[in-house]
Design goal:
By secondary structure, the protein is α/β, with parallel strands linked by helices. The protein has two domains: about 5-45 and about 290-394, Aspartate Aminotransferase, domain 1, CATH 3.90.1150; about 45-285, Type I PLP-dependent aspartate aminotransferase-like (Major domain) (Aspartate Aminotransferase, domain 2). The chain has 13 helices and 14 strands. It has helices at about 5-10, 15-30, 45-60, 70-85, 100-110, 125-135, 155-160, 185-195, 255-265, 270-285, 290-310, 345-355, 380-394; strands spanning about 35, 95, 115-120, 140, 165-170, 200-205, 230-235, 245-250, 325, 335, 340, 355-360, 360, 370-375. The strands form four sheets. The protein has a seven-stranded mixed β-sheet, sandwiched between helices. The structure holds 4'-deoxy-4'-aminopyridoxal-5'-phosphate and glutamic acid. 4'-deoxy-4'-aminopyridoxal-5'-phosphate binds near residues 204, 236 and 242.
């Protein structure tokens, strides 16, 4: 009898996707589940982007695309980096992939040797640790907490660095905490990194436009860091295009070339029609998607306010993305309605079963005291979800 590889057997299932699948299953059984689990905008892709895809179909964009993306898309990405981030890249530094998830996997595959360490400030996005492990790297978790707004300090970074450190990965705005590093905070981290020129930084900026506090800062904007930062971005979140699967990087040329080589053996160029649509998405002004960002902002206030009214929830107001990440450790060790709550996973299951509200346990993100709520859901759903949680806890 065959056996599956050690590689896949030792890999954890994506908890965000698993919770979303469970919520879908329960809904199909007729249960009235409110899903605040998956980080996915509840908006439709804007019409002007859809039109560009329809036009691309009519224009017969049906052949394999260049592995690293159409030249026109790379140019649109170069202009976007200039316009939004004041970053200068040329075509040899851009690689388009099947979602930012593949961009991240490429980078891990081309940079990590077995045993190389990757510093992950906690909470980190669920797939970082598993992607690193798949590439035989070692995730090094740096804990942060609600008290420090989930930010890693320069001292913590310094203490985590060893001779095996190869990379630092983080997202800002952060999934799952919603924290946003200011330019000054990034500079303070960069001051540590300049002493360690062998460390590559992966700056995941996929929530860049969903930022409620002001300017988005990029690590590559610092001249003394530019040549070892991989800037990761994509259209899933701000453009409501999760299913279209387009992400991209701006990177030092040799890293970009290596990603191109890796991708050429695994998936080839990303979907041709989606790439043509993304040219339009990136060329049009950001003001066209502002209505979605405004809605996320008002939902943020709503959910933060409502959750903080629940005894035992310690909530910080997120500064970006569309997640709120309360500390719920108050409930650990309690038994509620016959459910023993030992940890955040038990609490998340309790909310699913007793309140019919789907969330994601903080364990998935390396922060076991917390629970993630995605507020990429309607105001009515948010209100109803919190009402049900209060009732379940009453
Ligand atoms: N990075 C972060 C922080 C995310 O939340 C996501 C969400 N899917 C991704 C990367 C991957 O995005 P995608 O593959 O849809 O471009
Ligand atoms: N990034 C989203 C989330 O964290 C989508 C799911 C995923 O790709 O893991 O929920």
């Amino acid at each position: 009898m065959y056996k599956l590889s050690d590689r896949v057997q030792s890999m954890a299932t994506s908890q965000t996707l698993a919770m979303a699948a469970k919520a879908r299953e329960l809904k199909a059984e007729g249960k009235d589940i409110i899903s605040l689990s998956l980080g996915e905008p509840d908006f439709n892709t804007p019409d002007y982007i859809k039109e560009a895809a329809i036009q691309a179909i009519h224009e017969n964009y049906n052949s394999y695309s260049p592995v690293d993306g159409y030249v026109e898309l790379k140019d649109a990405i170069i202009n976007k980096f200039k316009r939004d981030n004041k970053l200068t890249y040329d075509r040899s530094q851009i690689v388009v992939s099947t979602g930012a998830k593949q961009s991240l996997a490429n980078v891990a595959m081309v940079l990590l040797n077995p045993g190389d360490e990757v510093i992950l400030p906690c909470p980190y996005w669920v797939s970082y640790a598993e992607i690193v492990k798949l590439a035989e790297g070692v995730p090094v978790e740096v804990p942060t907490s609600v008290e420090t707004d989930f930010k890693m300090t320069p001292e913590q970074l310094e203490a985590a660095i060893t001779p095996r450190t190869k990379m630092l990965w983080y997202s800002s705005p952060s999934n799952p905490s919603g924290m946003v590093y200011s330019r000054e905070e990034l500079r303070a981290l960069a001051d540590v990194l300049v002493k360690h020129p062998e460390i590559v930084v992966v700056s995941d900026e996929i929530y860049e436009h969903i930022n409620f506090v002001g300017d988005h800062a990029s690590m590559a904007q610092f001249e003394d860091m530019y040549d070892r930062v991989v800037t990761v971005n994509g259209v899933s979140k701000a453009f409501a295009m999760t299913g279209w699967r387009i992400g991209y990087i701006g990177a030092p040329t040799d890293i970009a070339r290596a990603c191109n080589k890796m991708q050429g053996q695994i998936t080839s160029g990303a979907n041709s029609i989606a790439q043509r649509a993304v040219i339009t998405a990136l060329q049009e002004p950001i003001s066209k998607i502002q209505y979605m960002i405004d809605r996320f902002k008002s939902r943020r206030s709503l959910i933060t306010q409502l959750l903080s009214e629940i005894e035992g929830f310690v909530v910080t107001e997120p500064e970006g993305a569309f997640y709120v990440f309360p500390d719920v450790s108050y409930f650990f060790g309690k038994t509620i309605k016959g459910h023993q709550i030992k940890n955040a996973t038990d609490f998340s299951m309790f909310l699913l079963e007793e309140a019919l509200v789907a969330t994601v346990t903080g364990d998935a993100f390396g922060s076991p005291n917390c629970l993630r709520f995605s507020y990429a859901a309607s105001e009515e759903e948010i209100q109803e979800a919190v009402k049900r949680i209060k009732q379940a806890l009453a």
